[in-house]
Amino acid sequence: MTASASVLFLELNEINFEFVRKYCEAGFLPNFADLLSSYPLHRTTSEANYDELEPWIQWVTAHTGKPLREHGVFRLGDIVHKDLDQIWEQLERRGLRVGAVSPMNAKNRLNQPAFFIPDPWTRTKVSGGKVVQGLYAAISTAVNENAIGRFDLSVAGRLLRGMVAYAQPRNYLRYVRYAAGSLRNAPWRRALFLDLLLSDLFVNEVARTRPQFATLFLNAGAHIQHHYMFCSAAYEGERRNPDWYIRPGLDPVREVLELYDSIIATIRRRFPRVRLMLATGLHQDPHEKATYYWRLRRHAEFLRKIGVPFATVEGRMSRDFLIRCECKEHALAAQARLMSARAHDDTPLFEVDNRGVELFVMLTYPNDIGPDFAFTVGDDRFQDLLAEVAFVALKNGKHNGVGYFVDAWPTADVVPREFPLASLPQRIAEALPSCQGADSGVP
What is the DSSP letter of 308? Predict the structure, then answer.
């Protein structure tokens, strides 16, 4: 593989390139169309078992070069308990300057990063100035509040300060449109707003620090496909979302792909000498049956109400949360209490993964929850579960272990059209010079 002065790696989580192609053919995505007409689209492969197809597993694979059986990271945020060698450290040891914005389930183990802004769910060090640190805190809060439809003014103020510092003027109108739409009938535009802000932050930091390698992870596409795939003009199945869920005629999937098309254009225009790589980790297939996603509104209050012993509790993505207990005995008692929780139709409410003094918990009840929805925990009966949970979404998409990869760089190498996701770090390493002496290619 021919080496380049620098690589920018765009991680478009779970995007379906079959959908991308259909929108390109309809004339909506000119920059994707240019990439796909100029460079080959490769397929990546990962785990075989469906329970192991989660982005927080596959992106660890993409960053370390190790499949799940070797890296052992099964839950979002668990990377902080490991000392896995990631692509950023590997390149830093070679004398290259590296950066990252929101890499999923990644740990900041760098000595002198150009910048490192973690994902909203992983407790690791933020490398950046005060504005970056404040913006990260706001984004982390906003992502979790987005899942329960809450967006307080203090978070909005910090996001506004981040916009003042990093937003590109050409995107001002887009920010306004996303913000206004999210307050009316298009809640998915909150995710678009946050991905746009992350991309503007990324472009700004790359221009300021001139790294030889930097990654940008964007999750709105995965979120929107999971919840609105049936609204997509590229979807050819028979399932449809009900009118109470989304107004007929809207296409959130096209909206997010148009945003990503614009981000690609910005990166290529701003950094014309830089090698651009894109990967998705996974993609999604249509989900076969109606499944509701719910999230606890106030995790600690709910646990106290139903008598679950805990020391701390942290929300994770969507329906998941992490409980820490004082000791293993308390964790076992908490697990038993949660596992005994049943809906009135005897369906379990939770799944629990016990890791000693920590419990990773999923609110898995898949059906509708109406007023006066009764549930039991052990011998205790409770009323009105609906007051305790927020509706997140209807499930439209499910994970498929095949991902996609594009390397926008002229190369004479014969590259297989399908290769293991675990080989991505090697491909990136081979694309870069061995030391920092080379110009980054960032003007």
Answer: -
Query: Is 60 exceeded by the pLDDT of residue 360?
Result: yes
Q: How many residues does the chain have?
A: 443
Phi-psi label, residue 70: left if phi above 0, alpha if psi -120 to 50, beta otherwise:
alpha
Sequence spans of domains, the chain: 7-289+397-430, 292-394
Q: Could you tell me the pLDDT band of residue 441, with boundaries at 50, 70 and 90?
A: low
Asked if pLDDT for residue 383 goes beyond 60, the answer is yes
Q: What is the pLDDT of residues 21-30, one digit of tens each?
A: 999 999 999 9
Least confident of 14-18, 60-64, 130-134: 130-134
| C-alpha closest to that of 343 among 291, 385, 387 | 385
DSSP 167-216: --GGGHHHHHHHHHHHHTT-TTHHHHHHHHHHHHHHHHHHHHH--SEEEE
CA distance 147 to 262: 26
CB within 8 Å of 211: residues ≥ 6 apart: 6, 96, 97, 98, 99, 114, 115, 440, 442
Whether the pTM exceeds 0.90: the reply is yes
With beta carbons less than 8 A apart as the criterion, state whether 219 and 103 touch.
Answer: no
Strands laid side by side in the 115-117 sheet: 115-117, 98-101, 213-218, 7-12, 275-279, 403-408, 41-45, 418-420
Q: What is the pLDDT of residue 2?
A: 59
Say if residue 249's pLDDT is above 90: yes
The predicted-structure confidence for 214-238, as pLDDT tens digits, reads as follows: 999 999 999 999 999 999 999 999 9
Q: Which CATH number fits domain 7-289+397-430: 3.40.720.10, 3.20.20.10, 2.60.120.10, 3.30.300.130?
A: 3.40.720.10
Amino acid 183 reads L
How would you class 423 by CB atoms within 10 Å of its CB: exposed for 0-12, middle for 13-18, buried for 19 or more?
A: middle
State the Cα–Cα distance between residues 433 and 441, nearest whole angstrom.
Answer: 12
Q: Name 387's Cβ contacts closer than 8 Å, sequence gap at least 6.
A: none
